[in-house]
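Reopening: non-specific serine/threonine protein kinase still failing for me.
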Amino acid sequence: MSYEMLLKATDGFSPTYLIGVGSFGSVYKGIFDQDGAIVAVKVLNLQHQGACKSFMSECKALRNIRHRNLVKVITSCSSIDFQGNDFKAIVYEFMANGSLEKWLHPAEESEEEQNKSQSLTILQRISIAIDVAYAVEYLHQHCQELVLHCDLKPSNILLDNDMTAHIGDFGLARFHLEVPHPNQSSSIGVKGTVGYAAPEYGLGNKVSTNGNVYSYGILLLEMVIRKKPTDAMFEGDLNLHSLSRMALPDRVMDIVDPMLINEEMAATGDRLRQALNNSREECLISMVRIGVACSVESLQDRMNISRVVHELQSVRKILFQATTGFNMQRRQ
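Support: Ran it again with your exact input. Result attached.
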């Protein structure tokens, strides 16, 4: 796909088409005149150190992997712009519901997006968490070569029309052959984003599947509590993990997202409704427990991602059955 085609599809990379800004570039909505197809176009900022390496890593990662919970790459562009400068872009399938970041933290967003956040139910959050866990399990265990994403966070989780979650932005991905020997320190330093990167990375340790699981655990806790790991409330020894660990099991409802409490309170009343509320509380406690188990400091003690998938599926089944039973009784 040519530079000229992408320029036209994004109205000259217009700010009105801008849908996100990442570590190494900006993402624009693109509309092609020929068939009206809508795409997302990530334009690399080649002045940023590491942008070219990020482009190559992402192309390599997404060329050989296919999964329903990974953002689909349509094509890439490596060309020259009209001023004679190098131009690199990656064209993705468009995700109509944007990033999980905007659903969880809409404070600076429009009123419409704030309303979206209010409709992100506990069942939707569990489903999103399972989608992401499925994708991580695939990258760790079912690719021809191990792929480490290295930057799991809400802004890299994208939601389609059906609210199915997809992991995007593989610009920091590492592959099996690039992972240092277990007895060697890594020279690549901290991988990922502050708050989500595993603590051992700050000590120069190698990137690993356990490091990805740590990031996933922080992401899961953030989805339930709706606090960023870099929130101003966290100082000293208090962080998202320790807050959650200390709340288990009896004080979890004191720290979860108030929107989930309101959702729970809306179903109070008779015994059946109370049973539904109990199921919701049980599910929230389980999600926090899993998030804590994934984000412990000792990397050897973190929960295996396949076990995460299994336990979250059980959590969703409990909630789904309780919700279905409540709705059936209410209609009778």
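Residues 3-93 form a domain with the Phosphorylase Kinase; domain 1 fold (CATH 3.30.200.20). If you still see a failure, please send the error message rather than a screenshot.
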